[in-house]
Amino acid sequence: MPGPKQERAQKTREEILRAAAEVFDERGYHGAGMREIMKRAGVTLGAVYFHFPNKEALAQAVMHEQPATIVPSLRSEGLQRLVDITLVWSHKLQSDPLLRAGVRLTSEQTGYGFDDVTPYRQWAQIMEECLVDGLAAGDVRTDTDVHALAEFLVAACTGLQAYSLLASGRDDLPERARTMWRLIMPAIATPHAAAGIDVSEEREAAVNGLTAGSGR
Amino acid sequence: MPGPKQERAQKTREEILRAAAEVFDERGYHGAGMREIMKRAGVTLGAVYFHFPNKEALAQAVMHEQPATIVPSLRSEGLQRLVDITLVWSHKLQSDPLLRAGVRLTSEQTGYGFDDVTPYRQWAQIMEECLVDGLAAGDVRTDTDVHALAEFLVAACTGLQAYSLLASGRDDLPERARTMWRLIMPAIATPHAAAGIDVSEEREAAVNGLTAGSGR
C-alpha cells in the first residue's frame, strides 16, 4: 500500500501530465515548453524533471495515457463494449486535453523524429480482448481473425480522426465512428448478434453519460 | 494543343515536383529547403519560384499529386478496381518518392500548421466512383451507402499506413491492405461477387507489374 509520500508524488505526476497535455494540445510538441508546463501544473521545474527527464519522456507518457481516459458510462461486454469504447473515444476527443494531446502527439510524432508504436499496440490489445469476449459470447463470427481485426480497427479509428480533424475539426468524428460500425458490422457480428449491437446516437449519448440510458 | 514552350514549362514543373518530393520524403517539411530542391531538380531558383511561390505551395502540390502516382498494371472495374488501387498504393508507398512525400506531408501537416483536406477528398472521390461502378455491376451490395463507405475506406487506408509505418517501416502495409479487404469484404460485396474479387498476394504482384498475371 502506498504511503502518503508516494501518493503525493503520484498526484504531482498526474498534475504534470494533465498540464503537459493541455500545452501539447494547444501548441503541439515543438511549441510546448517545460517552463509553461511547470507553471500550468503549479509545481517547480525540479518536480517536472524529477518525474520526466525531458520533454520527449513527457510526450511519450501523454501518448501512453490514452486508454486510461476512456471509461464508458454504461456496463457492457464483448462487441458492444468495443463499440462503446469507440463512441466514448470519438466524443472525448472533442474535449479531453489528455486524450487530444495523446492522439495529436501520436499522429504527428514522425514529424518530430519519434518512432513509438506503443499507443497503437495498447489500443489493439484492448480491442482484441473485447473481440475475444465477443467470440466467446457468440456475438463475433466464429471465422473471425480477432487479432487481425483488432489491428485493422485501430488503424481505421486512427484514420477516422485524422480525416475528421481536417474535414470538420473533429465535429463529425462521432458520426464517422457510428457509420464505420454500421458499414462493417455485417462482416464482424453473427446475424443473430448484429441486430442487438447498439451503434445509435442515443447509445453514444448514454455511454458518454449525457443521458439516463440503461445498459444492455 | 500546347506549344513547345508550354511543354517545356510542364516538364520543368514535373521535375521540380519530383525533386521536391524526394527532399520532403527524406527530410520532412521543415528540413526541406528550396535551394536543395532547386539543385536536385537541376533548375534555377527562379524556375522554382516561377512555378511555386513558396515552400507551402510546393508541399501542397506534392500532397495533391498522390492519385496520379497510382496506375494499376491490369485493367479492372468497380470493386476489383478499388482493391487494385489500394494494392498498388500499399506497394508504391514503399518506393515512390512522390507518393511517399504526399502521404508524409498529408499525415504530418497539422504539425506544420497546415489544414488541407483535399488529398482525402481526392481519394474519396476516386473510391466512390469505383463503388458506384461496382453497384451498377452487381458486385457491391445494393443497400451500401457508397459515399459513406468511400469516406470510411480513405480513413482506414490513412490509418493503415500510419500504423504500418511505426510497426514495420511500412513493410507490412501490403499485407495489412489485403487483410482489410478479407475482413470487410463480406459487408461490401454481394455473396455472388465476393468469391470473384481477388485480394491475394498474387493479385498484388500482378497489379504492380511484377508478374505476367492477366486481368479479370
Give me the CATH fold name of the largest domain in chain A: Tetracycline Repressor, domain 2
**How many helices of chain A in DSSP terms?**
11
Fourth-level CATH superfamily of the largest domain in chain A: Tetracycline Repressor, domain 2
The radius of gyration computed from the alpha-carbon positions of chain A, rounded to a whole number of angstroms, is: 19 Å
Instruction: Determine the mean pLDDT of chain A.
Output: 94
How would a crystallographer describe the biggest sheet of chain A? none
CATH A-level architecture of the largest domain in chain A: Orthogonal Bundle
Uncertain segments of chain A: none
Number of strands of chain A: 0
Shape of chain A: elongated
Helix content of chain A: over 70%
Beta-strand content bin of chain A:
under 5%
Secondary-structure element order of chain A, as H and E?
HHHHHHHHHHH
Name the chain pair with the biggest interface and residue counts per chain. Answer: A-B, 42 and 42 residues
Organism (chains A, B): Streptomyces laurentii
Keywords (chains A, B): DNA-binding, Transcription, Transcription regulation
InterPro entries (chains A, B): ArpA-like (IPR047923), CprB_TetR_C (IPR054126), Homeodomain-like_sf (IPR009057), HTH-type_TetR-like_transc_reg (IPR050109), HTH_TetR (IPR001647), Tet_transcr_reg_TetR-rel_C_sf (IPR036271)
Protein name (chains A, B): ScgR2 protein
Plain-language structure description:
2 copies of one chain form a homodimer. Chain A is an all-alpha fold and 216 residues long. Chain A folds into 2 domains: 4-59, Orthogonal Bundle (Arc Repressor Mutant, subunit A), CATH 1.10.10; 66-207, Tetracycline Repressor, domain 2 (Orthogonal Bundle), CATH 1.10.357.10. Helices cover 71% and strands 0% of the residues of chain A. Chain A is built from 11 helices and no strands. The first copy, chain A, has helices at residues 4-31, 34-41, 45-51, 55-64, 78-92, 97-112, 118-136, 146-168, 173-188, 191-194, 201-207. The longest helix of chain A has 28 residues, at 4-31. In chain A, 43% of the residues are buried. The interface between A and B is large, with 42 and 42 residues.
